[in-house]
């Protein structure tokens, strides 16, 4: 699935993972800590850090010290990153339409609901409570 969406986003130069990071930062109010971002994306911090580096290198986001605690770092999307995200939106919508055309709109909607449940904090907590 990632390969299909990466191909759809290729004209703007973002991968689906990079776009997701930019979207999540904005959804979290624009200046989350790396830990908050990792938690929201259900990623470990090292995986997130690897994915953040190219976005930072390309000037799409910046990391700043958190004045509130001095230890954590805040992540912010730059003006260039907001422009890149806006550029990706039409490609994303087109890919979503193609997915629904092939998979079916009802099945696609059901899949989105199921994925939202799986990625929820409640699911993670229940999963972690379940003994192996």
UniProtKB/TrEMBL annotation:
Pfam families: MarR_2. Keywords: DNA-binding, Transcription, Transcription regulation. GO terms for molecular function: DNA binding; DNA-binding transcription factor activity. Residues 1-120 form the HTH marR-type domain. GO terms for biological process: response to stress. Signal peptide: none annotated. This is Transcriptional regulator, MarR family. It comes from plant metagenome. The lineage of its organism: unclassified sequences, metagenomes, organismal metagenomes.
